Amino acid sequence: MVNKAAEGLVGNRFEFPVERGKVLEFLEATGGDVEAFGSLIPPTYLTSAFFWEARVQGADVKEAIGFDPSRSVHAEQEFRFHGPPPRLGDRLTATSRVDRIYEKTNRAGKTLTFVDVVTDFRDDKEQLRAEAIMRALEFPHE
Questions:
Q1: Distance CA 48, CA 21 (A)
Q2: According to the CATH classification, is domain 4-138 in 3.10.129.10?
């Protein structure tokens, strides 16, 4: 059962250093062109923040939603940048929040539950540099 009271929940802040070695590993794992990015990160690299988030107690707000893993999927991912993308060597901090929990009815008349989790990435001057919006979906009981 989805915990609708989790909407608006903000997790604890966590560090997200943009390390050269990790970015190179990410590019190699995803088949990216190392030369194409130079000192910029590939936009999808922000996904790896989940590894850092998991290390900080209370940072991962997804746990509070209560999705049933046997009936849920990661449906969509969006990245928004405010200015140039982060660069190698940047030390960002991030905070995730449960932005929205909502329902839609499918063609079969069953209720689907959607959750949008937004992670904000800020630089050392507290400027918002990027947002990662993750949409998850829980299918109804059969």
A1: 13
A2: yes
